[in-house]
Design a protein that fits this description.
- The chain is mostly helical and about 325 residues long.
- About 80% of the residues lie in helices and about 0% in strands.
- The protein contains 13 helices and two strands.
- The chain has helices at about 1-25, 35-50, 60-85, 90-120, 130-135, 145-165, 165-175, 180-185, 190-215, 220-230, 240-285, 290-305, 310-330; strands at about 135-140, 145.
- It has a two-stranded antiparallel ribbon with strand order 1-2.
- The longest helix has about 45 residues, at about 240-285.
- The two termini are about 50 Å apart.
């Protein structure tokens, strides 16, 4: 029970910080689709700070400097989205997608360059920070907490007060909902949107830092990216169009088959229910089938979902195996 509560609070804090970051960005009128990239860059800043901190640094200083490092890089990287979308009126979807791709590649290259500078034989893309990571944990009996839980609660309170109880928050929402009206009364719309985007970036990097510190998943992510360059070097890809075409056809086939297998139970139940309702409408025309059918469809749909939930594990295993096979086929078509 304690372990369940511990992980529930950790994931709740993650979702809370993501939602708060999205609130500031959306209220300013900018859709922040580059949030994954901002998370990666912010996590890189925090990880580098923890790596180069001298041994014996107090827990408070470790937490403070790590947060400052991750916030700084997260805010700077989110400024790219602000400049592109606010000043140059670029498409927010394209800019966000480009930022996500750039961040992962940049983080991998930077970490590999730092490791190679220390040890020429070390071409890994991992950052070791075992000891500083312990500063983010605290113990209350059998419960092991994380200071990011406290930070998330404080951020929630501060965000609520900022958005709904201060002049800055009201102006931010006005710039997002009615920018022309806000500009007509003398509010600098560009300035407010910059503020919303950078605050969003700062909160997003908190999320990924919490996830990386709690799970150590960054080692697998950056390691997989580094191994991809070893498998297919830069300018070393050989495109085999025939193999890639066969893989693409197989992917589309599996895509349709998987979708059909997932929706088949609900589709069959809905089809059977519609046939029954059609027969009843002929037998008893005075019945309002529209009013009756809605409740029946909801009940039958929920029942089918509940009864077929045990099949999801098999479907997930099938999807996972197919994804592995298709990935191997795609890589084989470029070697």
């Amino acid at each position: 029970m304690t372990l369940l509560l511990q992980y529930t609070l950790i994931f709740a804090a993650v979702l809370m910080l993501v939602a708060l970051g999205g609130c500031f960005s959306e209220h300013s009128g900018v859709i922040n689709l580059g949030l994954e990239g901002i998370m990666v860059i912010g996590a890189l800043g925090g990880a580098l700070v923890m790596r180069y901190l001298p041994s014996g640094t107090s827990a408070f200083v470790t937490i403070l400097l790590t947060l400052l490092g991750s916030v700084t890089l997260g805010v700077l990287f989110s400024t790219l989205l602000a400049v592109a979308c606010i000043n140059f009126k670029a498409d927010q979807t394209i800019v966000g997608t480009a930022m996500n791709m750039l961040s992962v590649a940049a983080a991998t290259v930077i970490v590999k360059a730092l490791n190679t500078a220390v040890n020429p034989d070390d071409v890994s893309a991992t950052i070791q920070y075992i000891e500083p990571r312990k500063a983010f944990s605290f113990q209350i009996g059998a419960f092991e907490g994380n200071w990011f839980m406290v930070i998330a609660v404080i951020a929630l309170i501060v965000a609520y007060v900022t958005l709904y109880k201060t002049r800055f928050g009201l102006r931010l929402m006005a710039c997002g909902e009615h920018p022309q009206a806000a500009d007509s009364v003398g509010i600098n719309v560009y300035k407010m949107r910059y503020a919303g985007t950078t605050i969003s970036g700062a909160l997003y990097q908190y999320v990924i830092m919490m996830m990386l510190i709690a799970s150590g998943m960054y080692r697998y992510l950056l390691g997989a990216l580094a191994d991809s360059f070893l498998l297919i070097p830069v300018n070393g890809a050989v495109i085999r169009s025939e193999n890639l075409l066969n893989t693409l056809i197989r992917f589309l086939t599996d895509y349709i088959v998987i979708g059909f297998r997932i929706c088949l139970p609900i589709f069959c139940a809905a089809l059977l229910l519609n046939v029954i309702l059609g027969v009843l409408s002929k037998v008893s025309p005075q019945m309002n089938m529209f009013a009756v059918g809605i409740q029946l469809k909801i009940m039958v749909g929920l029942a089918v979902l509940f009864l077929s939930s045990y099949m999801l594990s098999d479907a997930a295993g099938f999807i996972f195996n197919e994804v592995k096979k298709i990935t191997v086929s795609f890589v084989g078509g470029m070697m």
